[in-house]
Structure formats: structure tokens, C-alpha cells
Write a structure and sequence with these properties.
The chain is mostly helical and 204 residues long. The protein has a domain of 132 residues: Orthogonal Bundle (Tetracycline Repressor, domain 2). 70% of the residues lie in helices and 0% in strands. The protein has 9 helices and no strands. It is elongated and about 60 Å long. It comes from Paraburkholderia sediminicola. InterPro entries: Homeodomain-like_sf, HTH_TetR, Tet_transcr_reg_TetR-rel_C_sf, TetR_C. This is HTH-type transcriptional repressor ComR. Keywords: DNA-binding, Transcription, Transcription regulation.
């Protein structure tokens, strides 16, 4: 379980904890988990070594906190794109387009920390976190399909679970292609077509 280190008493901190974690995200992005040292984190986060250990813990603890904060931020935006009041097709398209836009955001590394960096970390807690995050994303899409069945947008025998998995797999695929340098415009066009594929009627 990811827990915050106990906060030391005394003088107020001279740094922003949230901002420091965002800077740590960029450090892990640039060097990968195994390539990052505590010295890299001290320099990148702008936090002295004693404060870093006291507030955030060791490298592993910092990475877990970075993953949690990153997943919460990205997950909330993905959910907003998916669940905003609109047609089912627009919802699925919005979800996939968000994956592309997030993975090609200016000023940030291409791809997604959860898909392009974290899976390379050989740690059981990291793996479990990623599995839980993936399952949560699939459940979110599955819920949107079930709402569409209730609204009469798709038939009651629509393969909800299978298509929800396909949609999240498509989002991951678009993200990985973004990391490889495929242009945003191409990926956005592919997201539109992928949404149509995800909504094809069930085969008889």
C-alpha cells in the first residue's frame, strides 16, 4: 500500500510537495526507473537530500507516489472525456482522442508513464498498481457501454466486456505509437476509425 512518509515537525517546508512530485515524474521519464539515482531526484525535484528522504522516502517510494499522482490526474481526465453527456460514439472517440492528446502533449515526453516506463520496473507493487489501473480503466469503459444499453443506443446483447477491453487496448496502442513518433494528426484520425470498429454490431 502506498503511504506518505511522516511529516517532520519544525520549520515550514520551502518547497511545494505536489510540484516536486511533478518534477520527479520528468526525471523518471527522462532516465527510466533503473537509470535514476537519488542525486538525480535531488537535483530534478529541487529538494535537499534530508528533506527528500524525510518527506518522500527512497527512490522506490517516490516512484510509487509519482505513479499514483500521475494515474489519478490522467484517469480523471480520461473519465471526463468518456463520461461527458454525449452519444456513445462521441464518448468512445473522446476517450481515444484523449489518449492521443495526452501522449503527444507539448512540453512533455511522448507516451504515458504507466504504459511506457512503469511496466519495465521489476517490482511486485508496481505491477499490481498497473494491473489495478488497467482494470479500473476497462471497468469505466464497460460502465459506459452498459449505460448505452440502458439508453437504447446499442442492443442488450452487445459484447460489453470484450469491447471495453478492446477500447482500452486501442488506447494503449495509440499511446505506444505516439512514443514511437507517429504524428498526432495521424493518431487522431486513427482514433476516429478505432471508435467505429469498437461499436460494430456483434457477430452472429
Amino acid at each position: 500500500m502506498i503511504q506518505n512518509a511522516a511529516r517532520p515537525r519544525g520549520r515550514p517546508r520551502s518547497f511545494d510537495e505536489t510540484g516536486a512530485l511533478e518534477k520527479a515524474t520528468q526525471v523518471f521519464w527522462s532516465k527510466g526507473y533503473d537509470g535514476v539515482t537519488i542525486d538525480d531526484l535531488v537535483a530534478g525535484m529541487g529538494v535537499g537530500r534530508p528533506s527528500l528522504y524525510a518527506v518522500f522516502g527512497d527512490k522506490r517510494a517516490i516512484f510509487l507516489r509519482v505513479l499514483k499522482a500521475y494515474a489519478e490526474r490522467k484517469g480523471a481526465s480520461a473519465a471526463k472525456a468518456l463520461l461527458s453527456p454525449q452519444s456513445l460514439r462521441d464518448s468512445i472517440t473522446g476517450f481515444l482522442r484523449y489518449a492521443v492528446e495526452s501522449a503527444t502533449e507539448k512540453g512533455s515526453a511522448r507516451g504515458c508513464l504507466l504504459i511506457c516506463v512503469a511496466p519495465l520496473v521489476d517490482d511486485p507493487e508496481v505491477r499490481q498498481f498497473l494491473q489495478n489501473a488497467a482494470a479500473g480503466g476497462t471497468a469505466l469503459v464497460e460502465g459506459r457501454f452498459r449505460d448505452a444499453i440502458s439508453a437504447g443506443e446499442i442492443p442488450s446483447d452487445f459484447p460489453v466486456a470484450a469491447r471495453a477491453t478492446q477500447v482500452t487496448d486501442l488506447a494503449r496502442g495509440l499511446t505506444m505509437r505516439a512514443q514511437l513518433g507517429v504524428p498526432r494528426k495521424t493518431l487522431l484520425n486513427d482514433a476516429e476509425e478505432a471508435a467505429d470498429l469498437a461499436l460494430l454490431p456483434r457477430r452472429v
